[in-house]
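Researcher: We plan to redesign the surface later, but first we want a full-length starting point. Tokens attached.
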């Protein structure tokens, strides 16, 4: 007499899933067209956003440098060097714009006019003169500038870097 073979768990098979009673594909060509238009618009928006982000790279880097300068300003041994670097940073930002060839030779009133022309908000009339003082005045005069005026210079510089208008 033979013993019947007991069913093993290895013999079990997974049941196939039933097909849905409806199709996921669009039923008319209009929905497909709408999907293509939405994908095309999303792609255009993504490309435009990426290009804008790339164009503003110099601005993000300048803001990081400005933050480093503000952080170093607290150290009295680096104060003079930091104050001398602020006008250089603003000139580098201006040179990174599309108007770079015209900016390289600007100074004095022309530099002030450029800063005012490209600012989205009003800046002080003597902003360029104060930057000139930071760049070229004797060390004792630069170190004698009050903290409130330096804070105003840094705030105005940050505002200009963040919001200056660049022709595309």
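Model: Full-length starting sequence:
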């Amino acid at each position: 007499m033979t013993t019947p073979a007991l069913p093993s768990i290895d013999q079990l098979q997974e049941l196939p899933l039933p097909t849905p009673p409806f199709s996921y594909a669009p039923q008319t060509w209009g929905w497909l067209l709408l999907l293509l238009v939405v994908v095309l618009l999303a792609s255009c928006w993504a490309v435009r956003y990426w290009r804008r982000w790339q164009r503003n790279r110099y601005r993000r880097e300048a803001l990081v440098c400005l933050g480093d300068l503000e952080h170093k300003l607290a150290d009295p041994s680096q104060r003079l060097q930091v104050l001398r670097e602020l006008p250089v940073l603003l000139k580098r930002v201006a040179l990174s714009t599309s108007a770079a060839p015209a900016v390289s030779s600007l100074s004095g009133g022309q530099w002030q006019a450029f800063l005012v022309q490209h600012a989205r908000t009003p800046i002080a009339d003597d902003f360029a003169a104060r930057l000139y003082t930071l760049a070229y005045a004797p060390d004792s005069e630069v170190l004698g500038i009050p903290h409130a005026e330096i804070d105003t210079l840094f705030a105005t510089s940050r505002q200009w870097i963040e919001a200056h208008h660049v022709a595309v």
